């Protein structure tokens, strides 16, 4: 389980919090529109339907920003929730991040172990602004890298879980209390449940 700082109401619990801040965000109509544009995009919706099921409804269980500034140390490699063999066989939790600026190697990019626990399999997400990336909370061994630059690294991220499925042990649950159990997305229609439709922002996921 991850070592954690004690958060305030507006701070999430993260590993290695020095010079690193996790801040739960309100889910405004604009944010919902941005998320819908991503979740219903041709590069993302089919992936979600394969992972969760084509007719599943998923709820928002995290909606937050993560900021790391100069001096942030590399985190320990970790997964986001506790994963017993039984949990791994029923993995249903998925997180997504949106890069809010071009991420350079010295800005402490997200680092993922691609095929196991060997450092030579390390992949750093040095990506352009607007890139969307997805990770399996039960399986993706990852960490935030060390930020040695003069530029902060900021990401906007959210986590999805099927309606009715309990949040797994170990999750930071970085979501404002008043937003819990309020935002449900229908994977078949590509819409938030209860929304009347309208234009979807032109937000495209990058490969």
From TrEMBL:
Protein name: Uncharacterized protein
Bias kind Basic and acidic residues: ranges: 8-22
Pfam families: PhyH
Region of interest (Disordered), ranges: 1-25
């Amino acid at each position: 389980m991850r070592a954690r700082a004690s958060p305030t109401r507006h701070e999430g619990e993260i590993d290695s919090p020095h010079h690193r801040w996790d801040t739960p965000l309100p889910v405004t109509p604009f944010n919902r529109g941005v998320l819908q544009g991503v979740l219903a995009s041709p590069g993302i919706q089919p992936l979600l339907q394969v992972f969760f099921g084509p007719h599943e409804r998923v709820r928002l269980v995290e909606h937050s920003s993560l900021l790391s500034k100069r001096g942030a140390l590399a985190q320990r490699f970790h997964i986001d929730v506790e994963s017993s063999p039984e949990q791994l066989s029923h993995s249903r939790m998925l997180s997504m991040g949106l890069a809010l600026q071009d991420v350079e190697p010295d800005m402490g990019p997200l680092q993922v172990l691609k095929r196991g626990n060997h450092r030579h399999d390390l992949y750093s997400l040095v990506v352009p602004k607007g890139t969307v990336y997805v990770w399996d909370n039960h399986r993706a061994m990852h960490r935030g890298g060390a930020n040695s630059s003069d530029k902060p690294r900021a990401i906007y991220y959210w986590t999805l879980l099927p309606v009715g499925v309990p949040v797994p042990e170990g999750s930071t649950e970085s979501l404002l209390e008043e937003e819990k159990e309020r935002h449900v997305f229908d994977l078949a229609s590509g819409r938030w449940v209860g929304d009347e439709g309208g234009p979807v922002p032109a937000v495209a996921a990058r490969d």
